[in-house]
Amino acid sequence: MDKTMSEELPEKPLLDHVMDFLEMVRRILIYIVAFLILLVFLPAPWMLPNSYDPLIFAFMNITNHYMLDFQHNIFSRPFAILFGVNGSRVVLISHGWFDSLTAAILLAVLLAVTVLSPVIAWEVYRFVEPGLYSHEKRIVKRYMVFALALFVSGVIYGYTVVMPIIFSVAVWLATLGGASLFFSIQEFYENILLGSLSTGVFFMFPLVILILNKMGIVSYETLNKNWRYIVFIGYVFLALVTPDPTPFSDLALGIPFVGLYFLSMWLVKRSEKKQKH
């Protein structure tokens, strides 16, 4: 029979499983904290020897320029021209002594979660591996690689495409109300962190659909027959959860949503063909 060696061993007590889980969490936290410390204290090599700029603050300056230079950002420039804010200059301000440091930590967390996601996934796999059959190990590995690819792609898309568009819309709305373009640096990076990570989670939609298919909840026939209604509901949902009230960020997320939906249909169809054979 196709069984792992762990099945021949006596089952662990519940307390041992809890301790293994806590040990996994401890290792993941150590990786993340170590990564954050490196970002905060290591100097940016391209700034040496002229000045000592911690790596994370150098990344902050790059992020500020990328997100707020509407004249040169290829994604936000068309919207900024449309709204007449392509020449606007946004100033990020600190309301407290440590707001810039807090903002730096928020960006460091985004980098840590993205860069270390393979390591985190491996630690999770090591935790669940002893309880898996050998064929289940192959399936779990394949699903985890697929989930990682979707999540990282979503984070990159959220950072590079969605957030610059959202900020261009936010600047336009601020100018409509006659406000000066002074924004909190902490809120700026909170939006980048939440927006990028939520887009990464959103991109895992095909994996959710595939799991629901494995559970017998959805089928290819259902997805194919009702795709217009599901896409419409998806757009309505995006309109409710995206931070700006205009349709532009919805469009930035809606286009990949349609692609992800049809990818889900293809994966479900492929899976059902394999099950029949």
What does the model show?
- There is one protein chain.
- This protein is mainly α and 277 residues long.
- The protein contains eleven helices and two strands, in the order αααβαααβααααα.
- The longest helix has 43 residues.
- It is flat.
- The N terminus is likely disordered.
Summarize this structure as a short list of keywords or feature phrases.
277 residues, 72% helix, transmembrane, mainly alpha, two-stranded parallel ribbon, 2 domains, 2% strand, TatC, transport
Residues in helices, as a percent range: over 70%
Give a count of the beta strands, DSSP E runs of length 2 or more: 2
Q: What is the tally of helical segments? A: 11
Low-confidence stretches: 1-7
Strands across the major sheet, in which order? 1-2
Quaternary status of these chains?
Answer: single chain
Number of domains: 2
**C-alpha Rg, in Å?**
23 Å
Q: Largest sheet at a glance?
A: 2 strands, parallel
Give the overall form: flat
- What fraction of the residues are assigned to beta strands by DSSP? under 5%
User: Helix- and strand-based class?
Assistant: mainly alpha
Order of helices and strands: HHHEHHHEHHHHH
Task: Give the distance, in angstroms, between the N- and C-terminal Cα atoms.
Answer: 21 Å
- What is the residue-averaged pLDDT? 87
